[in-house]
UniProtKB/TrEMBL annotation:
Entry keywords, A to Z: NADP, Oxidoreductase
Chain ranges of the Enoyl reductase (ER) domain: 10-319
GO CC terms, sorted: cytosol
GO MF annotation terms: mRNA 3'-UTR AU-rich region binding; NADPH binding; quinone reductase (NADPH) activity; zinc ion binding
Protein name per the record: Quinone oxidoreductase
Source organism superkingdom: Bacteria
Keyword Oxidoreductase applies: yes
PROSITE patterns assigned: QOR_ZETA_CRYSTAL
Family annotation (SMART domains): PKS_ER
Length: 323
């Protein structure tokens, strides 16, 4: 089969397209022929060596496709079934071995590109709202990178819950998308960001900040958080937050900071399918409109990484193995 490989740690140029052996299913795995493969920020952290990985390896964790064969212990999925997943290493390929427990059947009405490029972000948005924090109707939250993949979905799911959403963005295009997703206030980054958030909240700040940008925004996130509020630091698009003195949380307002990861909120098949079920339902009933912002051939994965890291993307990014 054809696949992308990370040949060594480094920039997008270390991504090589070529032929590799087909995957062989373990007893509890299915082999899926991919139709759409998701590109996520974590793929770039692993490629750069920021998170541990050992080249050469096939990158990617997310996609959609059709089950073409299964290991002997798999009883829950059938050949020909359409599934999506976001925890199967080696997804930048024409075929992927996916643990059956991690594969989610895709309902009719959710297309391959949407499922294959947004399940990871959709499940993340779901657990950020119902796991890491629990904002309820009438609360106001701050979402950084409101025009990005997670940001657009998180905004729409928060609006479904009656939450007021303030977002940050870096461009007019992203501002327009964030407003379309339902953001009530859209701000640009800057040293006075926290002051502007306080202006919008009667001086109190917000009870929850969702920060996937990291190094560049963390200080403003803390300063924008209300007494007894929480900063949910869920990513590092601008780089990791430097070591931090916990004592600072005391005078800042008895604040909490959490640094969650999706795997811990989808650890059982039951929790994975519950979150995926609610996410797909929100797509089907029109509450969430997933913007597939960029499409590339599988062979052009390096261009996808370049654009994602250059802040040049909006919404989700998909690789198409069949082009
Ligand atoms: P996005 O589509 O949101 O892209 C990242 C965005 O971050 C950019 O578009 C940009 O928006 C903003 N940004 C700000 N500063 C920088 C910078 N220096 N370099 C690059 N981007 C910057 O990505 P995703 O939706 O894929 O992911 C969003 C975040 O969520 C990432 O940090 C990712 O790691 C994290 N994540 C965490 C998970 C978890 O479970 N912990 C799971 C999934 C994702 P703008 O130009 O408007 O500032």
């Amino acid at each position: 089969m054809r696949a992308i490989q990370v040949t060594r740690h480094g920039g997008p140029d270390v991504l090589a397209f070529g032929n590799v052996d087909d995957p062989i299913p373990a007893a509890d795995e299915v082999i899926v022929a991919t139709t759409a493969v998701g590109v996520n920020f974590i793929d770039t952290y692993l490629r750069r060596g920021l998170y541990p990985s050992t080249p050469p390896y096939i990158p990617g964790t997310e996609g959609t496709g059709v089950v073409v064969s299964r290991g002997p212990d798999v009883t829950t999925l059938q050949e020909g079934q359409r599934v999506a997943w976001c925890a199967a290493p080696g997804s930048y390929a024409e075929k992927v071995a996916v643990p059956a427990a991690k594969a989610v059947p895709v309902p009719d009405g959710v297309d391959d590109e949407v499922a294959g490029s947004s399940l990871l972000r959709g499940l993340t948005a779901h657990y950020l709202l119902d796991g890491s924090a629990h904002p309820t109707a009438g609360d106001t939250v701050l979402v950084h990178a409101g025009g990005g993949g997670v940001g657009l979905i998180l905004t729409q799911l928060a609006k479904m819950r009656g939450v007021t959403v303030i977002t940050t963005v870096s461009s007019d295009e992203k501002e327009a998308l964030s407003r379309e997703a339902g953001a009530d206030h859209v701000l640009r980054y800057g040293d006075d960001l926290a002051a502007r958030v306080r202006d919008l909240t009667g001086g109190h700040g917000v009870p929850v900040v969702y920060d996937g940008v990291g190094a560049d925004t963390f200080e403003q996130s803390l300063a924008a958080t209300a007494v007894r509020g929480i900063v949910v630091l869920f990513g590092a698009a601008s780089g990791p937050v430097p070591p931090f003195d916990l004592q600072r949380l005391n005078p800042a307002g008895s604040l909490s900071v959490t640094r969650p990861t999706l795997a811990h909120f989808t650890a059982t098949t039951e929790e994975l399918r519950w979150r995926a079920g609610e996410y797909f339902e929100a797509i089907l009933d029109g509450s969430v409109d997933v913007r597939v912002g960029q499409r590339y051939r599988l062979a052009d994965a390096a261009a996808a990484h370049t654009d994602l890291e250059a802040r040049a993307t909006t919404g989700t990014t998909v690789l198409l193995p069949t082009d």
